[in-house]
Amino acid sequence: MKKKLLPTSTVGSLPKPAWLAPPKKLWSPWKLEDDQLTEGKQDALRVSLHEQQLAGVDIISDGEQTRQHFVTTFIEQLSGVDFENRKTVKIRDRYDASVPVVVDEIRRQKAVFVDDAKFLRQQTSKPIKWALPGPMTMVDTLYDDYYKNREKLAWEFAKVLNEEARELQDAGVDIIQFDEPAFNVFFEEVNNWGMATLERAIEGLHCETAIHICYGYGIKANTDWKKTLGSEWRQYEEIFPKIQSSSIDVVSLECHGSRVPFELIELIRGKKVMVGAIDVATNKVETPEEVADTLRKALQYVDAENLYPSTNCGMAPLSRNVARGKLSALSAGAEIIRKELAL
Ligand SMILES: [Zn+2]
Fold it and tell me: Cα of 341 to ligand 1 centre, how many Å?
């Protein structure tokens, strides 16, 4: 991968065009069908790529234009899952969601995102990053009527994630990111088996690997939860030692506008850190100086060559206009710091 100081990226999702899926909601239903849907998803991916490049983003993602949801779309492609008779469960200990049901042994009979990744690879020579859900967050986003044991199911998911990740790597993906918002909620499980199952998911990979741990999309259930977390959010402290001793390369964090004390980043010194410098829970577009300020604070605990400026989380629920503005602010903020570092 070509080395540029402070390479910018999104965490993953970007808003979809309104002709593909109604905007500003999670699990938004597709407006097209069959071949038209396939073509529509590819067109949306092209637009998303174009907008990221126009905004000066350095590490390109697919904007998750081809998936309805960052977790359930992957689960639905596996055998052993019933996604028609869904059940409502409480996810992240926080809000109800209609989710697929595991009814039999989990198997990955076909690749899930590999064709999409090949398509993105053909469109750009910039480094590309692909997000997959992590094993623990998958377990926490379904109803299990078969294994009836979260750890056991996580090991099964780790196995199929590893199969998918190896094919994504072979398709030319530079960074594979695993989304684990559940890590911020179930600390004991992270330390007992969550990180171990993620290690299984990245086994044998030689591309860069990342873990994304945030406080969730900017939806009401999450912003309400954040209000209960007090004046200092120290959740990362519970899991960072485990992550620090793992073989994961990059850790993606929520920083901007959050109450996470920056000094916690010291606990993962040596890792690459995707510093969230864009708040995804507000429509207010950050100024470049605000972004730069967050990056400056993070630089006390991350060496410059290890700092990847990013968003706090996915931007799927935002308007396209706001998301575009935020991407440009991210690039402009990173540029301010690059100039300062060059002095
Ligand atoms: Zn997130």
Answer: 29
